[in-house]
Known about the structure:
By secondary structure, the protein is mainly β. The chain folds into four domains: 1-71, no CATH class; 78-145, no CATH class; 177-292, Immunoglobulin-like (Sandwich); 295-435, Beta Barrel (Elongation Factor Tu (Ef-tu), domain 3). 7% of the residues lie in helices and 44% in strands. It has four helices and 30 strands. The strands form six sheets. The protein has a six-stranded mixed beta sheet with strand order 5-2-1-4-3-6, with no helix packed on it. A six-stranded mixed beta sheet has the order 11-8-7-10-9-12. Strands 13, 15, 16, 19, 20 and 21 form a six-stranded mixed beta sheet that branches. A hairpin with a 6-residue loop joins strand 9 (103-106) and strand 10. It is globular.
Amino acid sequence: MAFLYNLNSCNPASYPDIVNLCWNTQVHPYNLLVVYIDGANPLQTYTLIYQGIDTAKCVNTIPVLQVATENTCTPSYDIFKYRNCETGLERIFGFPLAPAPGTFKINGECDCWTFVAEESRADEVVTTAFNSYPNCEECLDRREENLCPTSERTLGYAVKVKLPEQAPVDRGFSKCCYKNLVLADIADADPYKNDFTGSYFKRETPSSTVDFKLVDVVTTTEYALNDATYGTFQDFGGVQNDLTYYIVDWRKVLTLLGEGVYQIKKELTIAGISVDLLSDTYSLESFSIQKANGTVRLDSIIDGKLVAIDTDFLNSGYTTSLRVRGYFGNPEYSYEQDNIAQRDYSFKQNTMSSKREYKYQALQLPDCITEELFDFMLFGKELFVSDYNGNNHSYKYELLPVKLEGNAGTEYFVTDRGVNVNLTFSDRTEDDRKINC
């Protein structure tokens, strides 16, 4: 089975469409985005359009693509590559208002930049004032003059924003056949049978915006996620003023839209730049013991600030779940007894306590899942684990509150990209105790 795509030219009069291209592993993450071919002319841009499943028309595979800065064939601002006059470092700047001809220096900064070539994707957008110069020499000389020790100095600041990173280029090593399964039950609201998935955005500037949408991968139909229709929506201005999120309730999606393959899309505007980010693909199916067999679900309530992504979830109510194929259980009991030595050298039991430690084994997970698990889910203030394996010793592991004890070792393989995860958890509340008063 192969997915058929076209690269529709943004300027057909200058360069033609590229049609009947195949993508063999999954729906392409750049579908409906404006892209250009890596290593080719970056000014020749295309829109990647999904055509359907048809292996007979395949002419070639989709080449390595790069996403243009603006998701439109007619960008609203100019993008050019410049070289640093001192270090030789090259950087691509976008100019929403007017481009900098020749050589320029941003006010409040020391670097001088000189023009190299036109481009189609920006590393940084210039939103502050700048001065233009005919060449590097004059720019550097004028910079030194402005540092007069007897003059009054004015300190200026520029707002520097970071654009979201796109997925790394596929190196040609195919993934294992991993199905990102989510389950829901229309007839039963039991949380054990109904998955949910969160998506969030933290703005760096007050002008940044985001629109959450649910995308039907097969039909490409989009559904707005801005109210309680498909889950829980928190707009900017909540407990965390710069945080917004949407938690998709897959039970609501199943009821209104039915089973299918979906993605969560974030349409971002950051410093005037439009960027679309698509989540992993979710295969939504109706819950049954047979379909859930062989999987484990981890629910995480995120609270507090995650420093690596500079996002504060304190008291925000953000929660999400992750279903993976694997196994949870096999508790190991450890006991601790406190005795009191008496004068006749006999011992009297004072307290007795028990602790259970569980094994969590997830099998052959791809990178997109392990990244979510290790770098986000396990940082939850509260964790709940549910096991759905038919061969489990106990069927009582439903939304079990746990705390992370440690990592028992991750297994990597040289023949494929999947990894095995081995974690240990214990009960969050350790009250299995006896006290002799």
